[in-house]
Structure formats: C-alpha cells, structure tokens
Amino acid sequence: MTITAGFLAGLRDLVGPQRVYTDPADLVAYSYDATWEPASPDAVVRVASTEEVSRLLALAAEAEVPVHPRGAGTGLSGGAVPRGGGLVLALNDLNRTLTVDPADSVAVVGAGVITLDLHRAAEARGLFYPPDPASLGACTIGGNVAENAGGPRCLKYGVTRDYVLGLEVVLAGGAVLHLGGRTLKNVTGYDLVRLFTGSEGTLGVITEATLRLIPQPPARTTLAALYDDLTLAGETVVAIGQAGPVPAALEILDRASIRYAEAYRPSGLDLAGEALLLIEVDGPDSASVHDQARRLEHVCRGSGARQVLVAEDAAQAGRLWQVRRSVSAAIVRLKPTKISEDATVPRSRVPEMIRRLAAIRAKHGVDLVVFGHAGDGNLHPNIVANRRDPEEMARVERAVNDIFDAALALGGTLSGEHGIGLLKRRFLSRQLGPAERAAMRAVKMAFDPGNILNPGKALAHDDVAGEGPGAGQGLAADDAGVRP
Amino acid sequence: MSGGRGAVAAGTTGGTTPLFEHDLDLCMRCSACAATCPTYGVLGHEGFSPRGRVQVAGALLEGRLEPNPRSLEFLDTCLHCEACRTACPNDVPVTRLVDLALDLPDFKPLGPAPNRAVRLMLWAVAHPWTLALLRPGLWLWQRLRLGRLAKSAGHRVPWLASLAEVAAGLPPMPSPFRPALPARRAPALPAPLAPARRPQAGSGRVAFFLGCVQEAVFAETNRASICLLQAAGLEVASAPGQGCCGALHLHQGRVNDARSMARRNIAAFEAAGPEWVVNSAGGCGATLREYGSLLAGDPEWASRAAAFSSRVRDISDFLAGLPLSGGEGGTGRDGPEPHRPRSTPLPLRVTIQDSCHLVHVQGVRSPLRTLLTPVAGRGLVELPRPDQCCGSAGVYNLERTELALAILDRKMEDVKSTGADVVVTANPGCTLQLRLGVARAGLTGQVRVLHVADLLWESVRPTESERKGGGSRG
Fold this sequence. Notes:
The structure holds two protein chains of two kinds. Chain A is α+β, with helices and mostly antiparallel strands. Chain A has helices spanning 5-15, 24-29, 50-63, 115-124, 141-147, 154-157, 192-196, 230-243, 255-264, 286-302, 314-334, 350-364, 390-409, 428-431, 434-447, 461-464, and strands at 20-21, 43-46, 67-70, 87-90, 98-101, 106-110, 127-128, 164-170, 176-180, 205-212, 214-215, 219-227, 249-254, 275-283, 307-310, 337-340, 367-372, 381-385. Chain A has 16 helices and 18 strands. In chain A, the strands form four sheets. Chain A has a seven-stranded antiparallel beta sheet, sandwiched between helices. A five-stranded antiparallel beta sheet of chain A has the order 5-6-10-8-9. In chain A, α8 runs antiparallel to α12 (350-364). Mean pLDDT of chain A is 91; it is low at 465-484. Among the domains of chain B are: 5-110, Orthogonal Bundle (Fumarate Reductase Iron-sulfur Protein, Chain B, domain 2); 350-472. In chain B, the strands form two sheets. Chain B has a four-stranded parallel beta sheet. A four-stranded parallel beta sheet of chain B has the order 6-5-7-8, with helices on both faces. Chains A and B meet through α2 and α11 of A and α2, α4 and α5 of B.
C-alpha cells in the first residue's frame, strides 16, 4: 500500500512537520543498515516519546502502512532496511531515559540510548553491562534487544536476553505493554519479555528496557596462543571449555587474518603462525586473574600451542586486541566487499567446522578468512570479494550456501547474533520445520495481524504472505537471498 | 590528509576511472563514525552523519539521486573536522567524497550565494597590505563599538552580524598610534631571553610560520611560541615574505589562490633554510603539511613542496619532542642541546579542546597533554569529547552560524562539566569560537580561553620579567 497524502498529513500533525521526511535525499539516508542491499522507504519519521510511537502505530495500522523500526542502522542482517517501502520509524531520539539504580542493580534505558553510553553510566556506579556488540559505540539498546545482540564477552556473561528484565513495547494497533519488571525472578504470566527480545521488530516496537547489571570485574589480562595448525587452535577451544576457567573472551584468528592485520597495522609482536587464539580473563583481583591465566596457558600448551604470551601490561594487551580489531579493516584492503556470516556451531564441533570451512574455501575458490568468537562456536567466517564481479559473487553465494549447510549438519544455527532479517530468511526452512514455522507464524499473526511491523523480516517470505488483511504487502517479488 | 574541496578537484582531473568507486567501497556502513560527528550529535539525523554523507554522496555520484537543496544541505553542513576519519576503521575519505559530490555541476545553481563575510575575509587575508590594515581596522572597530551596531543591524545584514559575533572574541587590539608591536614586515621576534646561540649544525635551526589571522590578531601567541623556542635553546630564524597559508581558500575551492600562496611561502622558507618550520595554528599547519600534495602536479614545485611539508611541525608537537631539560631553570642557558623548557605549575584547572586539524589531520594529540600536565596545578581534566569540533571550522561559523552555535553550546556544556578555569586550544579560529562560547554560556571572567603556547609561556617565563604585554593575554 502506498503512502497517501492524508496519511502524511496525519503524521505531520502527530510529530510536527520537521520530523517527517519525504525528500529523496532523506530517503537515501534511511535506506540502509550495515548490510549491502539498500531499499528506499516512502517516508521517514522521527519520534521522541512512547506516546508518539503509540499514536503513530495506530495510524499506520489503520492505513495499513508498513513500518520499519530503526535504531542506529548498524545491523548485519538487513533488519532496518525498508524493503518494499513504507515508513522508516527512527527511534534514536528515544534517548532521554538512562537511569542506573545500584540498589536494584538495574538500568532503565530508552530504546534510543547508545549501548556505550549505558556501559559508561553503569561503570560510573561500579556496575557492568556485559553485552558488547562490535558496533557498541553507535548501536542502540532498542536495536540490541530487538536483535538479541551478542559480542565477545557473551562467552562468559551471556547475550542481551540474559540481561533484559523488563520491556515497554508498543503493538501494531498502538497498545502499550509493560512487561516483566525490576526483579530477577518473575514468573507472572507468559514470558513475553523473552518473546520480544530477538523478535527483530516484527512483533512490536520496543521503546524502553529495564536491564540487569552486575558488579564490574576490576582485574583483567590477556593471553595469546600461537599454533602451527588451525585445527589445534580449534581443539584448544574445546579443551578450555571442558577444563575451565571460563575466559571473558576467546577469539580465533587464522593465518590470513593475522597476516592481513599485521600488514595493515603491525603490532610489533611476533605473531607468525597458522592460528592465533586471543584469550581475555577477568576477575575480582590480580591474583585470581593470574591464576586463571596460568591455568589457561597450561591448557593451550597441552593442546599443541607452539607459544603462549601473557600480556605484561595493559598496553601489551591493547596491542594484542588491536590485531583482532584490525582484521575487518585489513581484509577489505584485499577486496572491498566483505560478506560476514555468523553461522554458529556447538563448541565441541568447532574443530570440524574449521576443517569444513577450509574445504569450502578450496571448493569455491573464495577468499574466506576465519576470525571470530571461537569460544561460543560463533566463528564468523568472512568472505571478501568484489561486488562488481558477478562471476565471483556467484561463487560467494554458493560458498555461503555450503557454510549454512555445514553449520546445520553439525547441529548449529544459521545465525548466532546477527539475526535472520532479510539476508537469511530464504534459508530459514533448512533449520526450522513446517511445525516450527507455523508456530512462529501464529505468534506473528497474534501480535501483528495486519503484518505492518517490519514485514518480510525474520520469517521466510511464504510464511507471512497470504494471511491477514495487509499480508504480503511490502514484500519484494523475489527474495534477494544472500547478497553482500 | 584533509579533503579541501580544491584538493579534490586537483586529485580527480587525471584519471578516467572514477576514484569515488574505490572510496565508496571502503565504507562498510558500520557507523563507527556517527558518535564522533558534531552535526550528527546536534541534529540526530542520519543525513547529517558521516556515513549518511558518504551514502548520499555515493548516490549522487552514481546518479541514483539528483542534486537538490536537501542533499546540498546534508553535504554542505560537513564541518570538514575529519573526526570521522580518525574514528573510521577503514580510513574512508569522507570529506573527499563529500567535496567530490559538491563539485557536481548540478549543484552550482543550488549553492548558496557566496557569503559576503567569507569573501571579505578571504580577500583580507590574502594580501600583505590588507593584513597590515586589519589590526588598526579592528582597533577602530573595537573603539567605536561597531560590533554592537553590526549586531543590531543583523536582521537586515545577517553576514555582518555573524562577523560581529565572531569578532567579539578578539583580544583588545593595541592602538596603532602607540606602536607597541614591531612592524608587520619584520616578523614579531621578541628580544631574546638568552644570548642567541647558534645550535650545532643540524641540531634544529627553526623558522617560525606566523600565519595571517594568527599574526594579525593573536600576535602575542606567536611571540609566546617564539619565546618558548628560544627558551628551549633554539635559534629562531625569520622568513621574510611569508604570508597566509591558503587553508581557507583551499577549503572554499579556490585552489589556484591556495597554490600561489603555497609557492610564496615555500620560497620564503627556502631562503631562511631552517631544519624545521614551526607554527602555532593547527589549521594552518595542516595545510602547510599538505603543500606536497597540493603542488604534486607542478614539475617545478613538486619536490620543493614535499620537502617543505616534511619540515612543518606544530609548536606543541615540536616542544614535546624535545628532551627534558637536565639543568635548573628554563632560560635555555644550560646544556648544549635544545631541550623542553621547564614549566612551573600554575594554580589552574585546565582542559583541552583539541583543534580538529591538529588532532585529526596532523595526528597531534598527546603532546598537548605532555606539555600541560606539569602546568595544570589544579589538574588537567579531559572534556567528554575533547576531539570534537567546537563549530568554528574555518569559516563555517560565518556560513552556518545557527548550526555552529548549536555545536558550540553543546561544547560549552562539556566545558562546564569539567570545572576548568582555562580551556586550551591550538588554533586561532577555535580560540575565537570558544571565547564566544564562554560569553554565551555566561562564564565570562570565570573561564579563560588560551592557546597552548600562551599558557605554557605563562608557566615558563621568568616571573620577574618586566616585559610588558606578556601578562595581559586572555
């Protein structure tokens, strides 16, 4: 359904004309997230309160206009891309609420608050909000909850959903729900907090979250283990998982990642090898941290590490993590288009997944590098290519296809932390059977019978089309599938 | 490397493949830049963020978007502060893409009418004789309180009002009838503190780049810088014939003007033959360091320009790079080698507003901290966003006064949160803008805005110095 002049006039009455945009330049600016398949909306609206969201969604439901909620547009699955047109609902102005309550160890946070600002506010009170997606300096809490974001620290501390105690959510017709609360234990009614967490904006618009905070671990250190064989590094991950202690982060870099990162920004450390494990441990004091580091060093050596470095100070630890942070930038020097997958396998299958990724790289002749959160099986195979080369992109698509098959064959999942969004929805039926998809469809229809909220995201195309009054609207005729 | 509009034009004339494709491909749309962008911070709209500008510029350059007033607004509000470049993991040349898109012919008729205040300024700084008149002219302006008049006429002559706003931050100009300052043509070298000693060959003979606005209205800062160099035991050579660096012209797309200014400066400093060319204006220094690329296509000047650029150092970077003095006192008499002048702590709480083109283009961040830590007797406190632009941005505050003031007011909230007595900057435009901010925030008399060299010299010079004029800064 296209947007009518009357609908736009209603929006302008609601939020003021200066916060409704239809100029082609505005539409370009709200056509993308951190993926590569932009789509233009028909209009963009910025809202500044829950009440505005509520009244807007009532209007949109009545007019059957698709609404694409957007936090900071840093997602990696196309969740905020307005495919099929409609309205982009920019929520970044919902950033005025940020209170940290040490008495209850909770934070009450507006959906538009930037994750790093929450980290800092918590740290100022000696508290800690662990989820640390790579985009934390830009992404919003609302987006983190809607996508159930992760990050390196999730290995020890869990993902976003493990910290969401309560939510304020606006439904498609404008109803405002207050779910959960400020208590750690809460079994009153269905756990809709968990349902909305990770729902990718398809069930309701999250406007505020009550989040659990934990004490800040004051001490930390970093180890680096070098290997002559990538699979040995993978086996170390399994060994660490069994022997403990649990690292705060456990990241793997293959030979190509190390080489590119070192060529891009040399660390000054001798890191030549087939694989590198970067391990961070944290704890209540330096004695605890040193004890953990010593035990982990022992496990690494026992699993075949050629060399283990323990950072002497924070500066050296910083240099080691710089290597990890440089990889993304370094590999796009090779080829500009980066396809970042986050198929995830159970920890015990990490070594096998590494072997299969090597086979996929050889079979399709793609530039596939592995660097990611090995500790939780979220390996992040990345392929770099040139999006202007159709032949290469076809090989990339086949390789990505095989990556999904490999992860699922090993008991894993299509996505560990990026979400299904637009990019992975056509693979959904490989992981979820007809009964599971029907159950999800029923949930979607219960909350959003008109299919106006983020239509076409998260559920496969054919799971939503053809049901409800506004069903299928806003869906592209063909599913683009995996594109850079 | 900053992307002055002119530098872009210079870089794209040769090739046939559009350079922008490569630049665009570098952007992974991660948005690591957003939090560093002052216009996004104030406006909260994606189109005013670096990523938004890159994507809008890409759409324009690829022909997916027609140039129109709104896309012009997104691109033309870019401060060119280069903070996004520092934040970007992939080193996307944001301002180069912005400038490339703004160069599209379809934008020409949409562009704002040339701003009279800007044109007046560009004309005034380019010629020695207008510069010579600037100081007496400003004295007259201050004596006759023309600023008030200009502001009250603001509704009819807005450009004059915006000029008056900025001019309010100027230090009091000395009367031209009591010539306290050396004549303009002879660089303002103060009487040396110590007998001029010729350092050993190659041990660091320096010449000082005075700058146009810096020398015309902040001559005291230049003199403080030169005194510091002399206190460091260095001989400071003069370079007659030097003039404006051309930064403002370059960023306004007047490349040929900028090139001829570059040639004049290169020739002047070649004659002086220093090992280092030291300057005290972060924006000018950035441009001086770009002469190499500005004149890269000029066979006669390319290598001379590159050699010149490689000698340019900011005063704080230069001083912090000197070894600490081993002896007592800071007069430069002790030890044969140049050394960092010794500071005595002042009873001040100090904060630093990094000047954009010093921190993001020249990459000079820690030297200011190194130098000021021993000076700030009541502590050196960091601003929440020390490396975010204050809204001055060359002539931006004259062109986009409303947005520049919104950015400035946000900055002043940050300044208040530090409780600092002194805000230190490293560039004349920033100093003017922040003094305006102090007045707007009602902090006049509580917070001083000083160039790093001014504050350093306060802490270095012999307290019994009877030389007049040194104590009235700020």
